[in-house]
Write a structure and sequence with these properties.
Bound molecules: adenosine-5'-triphosphate, magnesium ion
Number of strands of chain B: 2
Strand order of the largest sheet of chain B: 1-2
Shape of chain B: globular
Order of helices and strands of chain B: HHHHHHHHEHHEHHHHHHHH
Largest sheet of chain A: 6 strands, mixed
Largest sheet of chain B: 2 strands, antiparallel
Distance between the termini of chain A: 25 Å
Number of helices of chain A: 10
Oligomer: heterodimer
CATH class of one domain in chain B: Mainly Alpha
Largest interface: A-B, 26 and 22 residues
Radius of gyration of chain A: 18 Å
Order of helices and strands of chain A: HEEEHEEHEHHHEHEHEEHH
CATH architecture of one domain in chain B: Orthogonal Bundle
Strand content of chain B: under 5%
Radius of gyration of chain B: 29 Å
Chain lengths: 256, 479
């Protein structure tokens, strides 16, 4: 894994720039003064206790949630109320959800070709070739004509990853992609994600898989109460946490 | 001390005891599982037996050939003895056409017959989209139906040949490009209108042109100002065309190139011709309208939402009969004087609005049943609102709602009998009353209702079966 790590270069181009961003749910101040710059090729793991705003933060990056103040610039496009910008950002940012969210009425192949055909206007044949390429990559090409309900959880999550990749995104967001899975399926999904990281994909990943963080992340961010409490390289973060909250959190998740 | 056991001889399989299999087991488990169940079974059997005992003679003594109720009774009394009961189906045999066509002139029956046959050619591509085999079977059946019925109705040769050529052509098209058949569905309403009401062929063409204008304006403008607004503008332009331009322009064309068939007035429509015309049109129009209302009700835009909620709640809060009276009386006050707004058209509009409000609620239930993740995944992939609705949300929401949607349709179709209250001749009340007013059939009671009820049952039952088949075909979730 160490060699792989060396291969994963971080460029000096900015992929995502979040500055002084705040978000409220009604009266509830869920994200407070978030400042975060993500470079192209960076792999960032976000962790923190339940309810700390991790999901909300990455969902703001593709505007599944709206922020009320501050700026979010994704790949040079600022997220405002302008629908054109939002659509542009969404088509360049892939997202993988905890509960897969595959479309149950479409086959695996159709799940993967839908967005390229309708959003990118790719011809059907070409979209299918791309889809098969990525289904090969996540190692389930033989399932292409089945429906999501016929697949195991791990397989569904890999399809979800392939579906996002078919849009050829520049940035991938993962929201606890393995926490709805049985232990034996977690590995197959993590392997897919590691492979993706090795190919230089910019990734923001909410996860509690600390092994994954140590293997591929070049930065770990710890959030609590809607704030970024600590960020550091994974080695430092785990061996030498600075804040008391981080220490408490790490002792809880690594403790047993 | 440990108990040691070794089997020296293996057991041979034996049949289960008689009590445990076959009919006795089924009877015991389903009908006689306890004293309550057993006594209910006995009571039920007694009730069925009594009903059969009371009504069987009536069915068995049916008379088919007679020219009046009196003659029927005489035949029954002569054959089965004084005081015997019996059904007098002779009334159906003699007057069946009136329940089917109302007062539509017999020489023109071929037109509704042809329209009815083509209805299935038009429904096929919607009901069995992409299923080549089912489409071929339907079109073949339509062809056979047309050959037989048009011959029976002694239709004029030219239209028969044209119609048969058309269906045969569609049959070929179904083999080559079944997807193209949807055009038949889109053009059918105009052809059907023309066949049923007759008159100048330019009238339905004018109607069709309005829709072409609507689509052209919508597509043309949607690049510039977004699909919703341009659809609104397209609608306004189309309505202006229909109201002010279509009449004079098409009238002019008619005077230059007069083409047409004998026109039939709305007051000659009746029976199932009327019920099916109203029912099918209202079903076809209410579904898209219901979908739009359901989406509008969920919209973030306050005005759209308020309008939709207001409309739905108003329509659901008012009895259909009230709306029908409105159709027959009030609309005339609102419309500019001199406009002659056809009564059937008015009724169709109100029945459509009525069904659309119910459908909107049914579809809203389907929308609410979808997990939020489906919307989020569609958004995250960059699909815009209409794409997400059309490709992801509606297919699933409608699938969930199929049973309720079809229930609404069945209810709507049966509600078409309520048009009797505004003086239209529905099959149940309107036509039956007319038949019973005949001196020959005065006093007949059960037979017409059973006849009409049987046809209604046939149609509604087919709809129900189709919906179940559709549910099975669309079942992909495997959960
Ligand atoms: N739609 C909403 N309306 C109101 N409050 C919300 C909404 N969504 C989330 N919250 C609240 O915002 C806070 C942050 O939620 P979020 O889902 O981002 O947490 P999280 O860090 O992802 O937690 P978990 O690890 O449990 O997924 C929580 O307190 C949650 O209750
Ligand atoms: Mg979360």
């Amino acid at each position: 894994m160490a060699e792989a790590h060396a291969m994963m270069q971080v460029s000096d181009e900015v992929a995502v720039q979040i500055s002084q961003m705040n978000k409220w749910y009604g009266q509830f101040h869920v994200l407070r003064d978030i400042n975060l710059t993500v470079m192209k090729g960076e792999r960032i793991v976000i962790c923190g206790p339940s309810g700390s705003g991790k999901s909300t933060l990455i969902r703001c990056i593709n505007r599944l949630e709206e922020h009320q103040s501050g700026r979010i610039v994704v790949d040079g496009t600022e997220l405002t109320n302008d629908l054109k910008n939002i659509d542009k950002v969404r088509s360049e940012v892939g997202m993988v959800f905890q509960h897969f969210n595959l479309f149950p009425h479409l086959t695996i192949l159709e799940n993967c070709t839908l967005a390229p055909i309708w959003v990118r206007k790719v011809p059907k044949r070409e979209a299918e070739e791309t889809a098969m390429h990525f289904l090969h990559k996540v190692k389930i090409p033989e399932q292409a004509n089945k429906y999501p309900g016929q697949l195991s959880g791990g397989q569904q999550q890999r399809v979800a990853i392939a579906r996002s990749l078919c849009m050829r995104p520049r940035i991938m967001l993962f929201d606890e992609p393995t926490s709805a899975l049985d232990p034996e399926m977690i590995k197959e999904v993590l392997d897919t994600m590691i492979q993706l990281a090795e190919e230089g994909m910019t990734m923001l990943c909410v996860t509690h898989e600390m092994g994954f963080a140590q293997a591929v992340a070049n930065r770990v961010i710890f959030m609590d109460q809607g704030q970024i409490v600590e960020q550091n390289a994974p080695k430092e973060f785990f061996s030498n946490p600075q804040s008391d909250r981080t220490k408490l959190f790490l002792s809880q998740i690594l403790g047993h | 001390m440990t108990e040691v056991f070794v089997r020296m001889q293996m057991l041979q399989p034996e049949p289960p005891p008689a009590r445990e299999s076959g009919l006795p087991k089924w009877l015991r488990e389903n009908l006689f599982s306890g004293w309550l169940n057993s006594s209910l079974t006995v009571l039920g059997l007694l009730a069925v037996g009594w009903i059969l005992y009371a009504s069987l003679p009536w069915w068995l003594h049916s008379v088919w050939h007679a020219s009046s109720l009196g003659e029927c009774r005489k035949i029954i009394a002569e054959t089965w003895g004084e005081g015997a009961t019996g059904a007098c189906w002779a009334v159906v045999r003699e007057r069946w056409y009136q329940w089917i066509f109302g007062f539509y002139a017999p020489a023109l029956w071929w037109r509704p017959i042809l329209a009815f046959g083509l209805l299935f050619a038009a429904l096929g591509p919607v009901l069995f989209a992409g299923q080549k085999k089912a489409l071929s079977v339907i079109l073949g059946a339509v062809l056979a139906y047309l050959v037989v019925t048009l011959w029976l109705a002694s239709a004029p040769t030219v239209p028969v040949l044209l119609a048969l050529a058309l269906v045969a052509g569609l049959l070929v098209l179904a083999q080559v490009a079944p997807g193209k058949l949807i055009w038949v569905t889109l053009l059918y309403p105009f052809l059907c209108f023309w066949l049923l009401w007759g008159g100048s062929i330019w009238t339905p063409i004018g109607g069709l042109l309005g829709f072409i204008i609507l689509v052209a304006v919508t597509i043309g403008l949607s690049r510039v100002i977004g699909p919703a607004v341009s659809a609104g503008i397209g609608l306004v332009v189309a309505v202006l065309w229909w109201l002010y331009l279509s009449g004079p322009v098409m009238g002019g064309l008619q005077s230059v190139l007069p083409l047409g068939i004998a026109s039939v007035n709305s007051d000659q429509f009746g029976g199932f011709l009327l019920a099916i015309t109203i029912g099918v049109t209202a079903i076809g129009c209410s579904l898209p309208m219901g979908i739009l209302l359901a989406l509008g009700r969920q919209s973030d835009m306050l005005i759209v939402k308020t309008l939709c909620v207001g409309f739905i709640e108003f329509i659901r809060g008012v009895p259909l009969i009230t709306l029908l009276f409105t159709a027959s009386l009030l609309l005339q006050y609102f419309l500019p004087p001199g406009t002659n707004f056809d009564i059937i058209l008015r009724v169709i509009i109100l029945v459509t609005l009525f069904a659309a409000a119910y459908l909107a609620e049914v579809i809203r239930g389907g929308l609410a049943a979808l997990p939020r993740g489906q919307y989020e995944a569609a958004d995250a992939l960059g699909l815009d609102y209409w794409q997400a609705q059309r490709l992801i949300i509606l297919p699933q929401a409608l699938k969930i709602s199929i049973p309720a949607i079809v229930s609404t349709f069945i209810g709507l179709f049966k509600d078409t009998t309520l048009v009797a209250f505004v003086g239209l001749m529905d099959p149940l009340k309107g036509i039956t009353q007319i038949v019973r007013a005949d001196i020959n059939w005065k006093g007949i009671y059960w037979e017409p209702y059973i006849y009409v009820g049987a046809i209604f049952f046939l149609i509604c039952f087919s709809m129900a079966r189709y919906s179940m088949a559709l549910e099975r075909r669309l079942k992909t979730d495997h959960r």
